[in-house]
Specification:
Shape: elongated
Helix content: 25-40%
Strand content: 25-35%
Strand order of the largest sheet: 1-4-3-2
Distance between the termini: 25 Å
CATH architecture: Roll
Order of helices and strands: HEEEEH
Structural class: alpha+beta
Radius of gyration: 18 Å
Number of domains: 1
Number of strands: 4
CATH superfamily: SecB-like
CATH topology: Bacterial Protein-export protein SecB
Length: 154
């Protein structure tokens, strides 16, 4: 879970908000596969959902991607969704800035699309939809404090 931001970090996130625009939300993958039969050894009540987060930073834009991998007794599903942001005013954020923005803004922007993608794919293929749980702030986040390669802006 993401921790509380310092006042300086909050200012950096607000600066990135002010100097970026959401260019779009894009599905990169939406797939589901039904098992022919329940895999041997799988408990009858087995259900697992793993959510991941990634980012990329370029000179004129950046993106944040959420991935969901679902496994249960009926089948497996994968959904990948990204939010793509255009930088404005020549602003050049750091990697840390983008990760903090992802934690505070982008994850909450993209997560509803991820939930919908999982629900749609699993409803069609599994015969019953998988509804991802509510993700409170910080549940889907980069652990910024654990990455020594991240620079702290002055």
């Amino acid at each position: 879970m993401a921790g509380e931001l310092s006042d300086a970090d909050k200012a950096r996130v607000h600066a990135l908000i002010a100097n970026s625009e959401l260019g779009g939300v894009f599905f990169h993958e939406q797939s589901a596969r039904r098992h022919e039969e329940t895999p041997e050894g799988m408990p009858s009540d087995f259900s697992n959902a793993e959510i991941g987060i990634q980012f990329r930073l370029a000179e004129e834009d950046f993106g944040v991607r959420l991935m969901a991998e679902i496994q249960n007794t009926i089948g497996t599903a994968t959904v990948v969704v990204s939010g793509e942001y255009n930088l404005t005013g020549g602003y050049q954020p750091t990697r840390r800035d983008v990760m903090m923005f992802a934690n505070e803004v982008a994850a909450m922007t993209i997560y509803p699309y991820l939930r919908e993608g999982v629900s749609t794919a699993t409803t069609k293929v599994f015969g019953e939809g998988v509804l991802l749980p509510i993700a409170p702030r910080g549940a889907i986040a980069f652990d910024i404090e654990q990455d020594p390669a991240l620079e702290v802006a002055e």
